[in-house]
Amino acid sequence: MRQICATLAALTESARHELLTFDDPAACLGLPIPEPFLELAGTCVRTAQRVATVRQIVPRHALSRVTAADAAGAAHLPGRARLTQSIPFKMIVVDRAVAVIPLDLELLYNGLLLIRDPVVVQALVRAHHAWWETGDEVPARPLPPGALPPHLRPVLEALLAGLTDETAAARLGISGRTYSRRVGELLAALGTTSRFRAGAEAARRGWL
Questions:
Q1: 31-60, pLDDT tens digit by residue?
Q2: In what order do the strands lie in the sheet with 18-22?
Q3: 143 CB-contact burial (10 Å; exposed 0-12 / middle 13-18 / buried 19+)
Q4: Which pTM does this prediction carry?
Q5: Radius of gyration for the chain, computed over Cα atoms and rounded to the nearest angstrom
Q6: Mean pLDDT of 7-11
Q7: pLDDT tens for residues 149-165?
Q8: Between β-strands 136-137 and 80-84, what pairing exists: parallel, antiparallel or unpaired?
């Protein structure tokens, strides 16, 4: 148990650029969590606050269950997180160099498979990217009425800059489909169907 925790701690602390995860925070609800893993959770949060890119994918049912249970604040996810209908298995990928998958696919402390083969790691990164593109942003704390949702600000700035959808999507690191969807969200939030009127309405609301 402590060897598994030490291995995970060393891997997460070694991250310099990116952490990608599939996680189900509700998988352990109702189960006794070994103390070393409670300590490991703090290490992971500190690492996530330091690394430039953290992308967590969580199944929708898990977040609602964890939030309802108030499981030690586990629903407060560091970095960026998205909700999907399901996840294929739990996973951690560190700097696209090593991947960690639990042997039983759910509970990390029952044993780990460490994958360093670059072809397999890249395949897992691509799988994570595909799930990420289909996910929705984790809802944050409620915004004040009439406030601009944070994930739409870059879209507004891209519209005001006159960027094409392709250029804007590339700069934001998202697919063209995701960018188009967010443009639709922004226009709906502004109460207009016109991209030309969006800037004026955003200025009127004090979003600029």
A1: 555 555 555 555 566 666 667 788 889 888
A2: 112-115, 98-102, 91-94, 18-22, 53-59, 80-84, 136-137
A3: exposed
A4: 0.59
A5: 19
A6: 84
A7: 777 888 898 888 888 99
A8: antiparallel
Sign of CA dihedral 62, 68, 71, 75: positive
Query: How large is the average pLDDT for residues 11-29?
Result: 81
Q: Please, is 146 exposed, middle or buried when counting C-beta atoms within 10 Å of its C-beta (0-12, 13-18, 19+)?
A: exposed
Q: Round to whole Å and give the CA distance between 22 and 128.
A: 8
Type and span of the H or E element at 160 = helix 153-160
30, two tokens: 């109702």
Residue 113: count other Cβ atoms within 10 Å of its Cβ: 11
Is the pLDDT at 102 greater than 70, yes or no? Answer: yes
Dist. CA 94–CA 43, nearest whole Å: 14
